[in-house]
Amino acid sequence: MKVDFWQLSRDPVEKVVALIAGRVLSIDERLLVVADDADQRKSISRGLWAAGPDSFLANGEAGADTSPRQPILLSAETNPENTASHVVFADGQWRDPTGFDRAFLLFDDSNIEAAREVWRSLDGGEELERSFYRQDGGKWVQVA
Fold this sequence. Notes:
Layout: E1 2-7, H1 13-26, E2 31-34, H2 38-49, E3 60-61, E4 72-75, E5 86-89, E6 102-107, H3 112-121, E7 129-136, E8 139-142
Parallel strand pairs: 1-6, 1-7, 2-4, 2-5, 3-4, 5-6
Antiparallel strand pairs: 7-8
């Protein structure tokens, strides 16, 4: 499993989720976006629909009849009703990513210590690859 830590400093979570979602869909995979707050999920959904004229990032909320067909599913739970192989923890809260090929933890200054704790807790995990990204100007750079 691959776990990516993305430190948000310039771009809002909605924009970063859209960036990740575009990349996941480009490799013909599905994405689950997890956030406890319903308002945050609505904001992310709006950001996905408005990501740009060249991208169509269709998405829906978990629990709906169309959930299994959604390429991007938003939920408060880590249950991939859409058979997603990738998961984004958009609210900075780590959850168990068992069953996913890749997990993304998005965090900002308000939850940086919790992200560091998660990083350390994953140290030495078998078949686990960790990466850390932060923004340098407007560009995302892998720093670890």
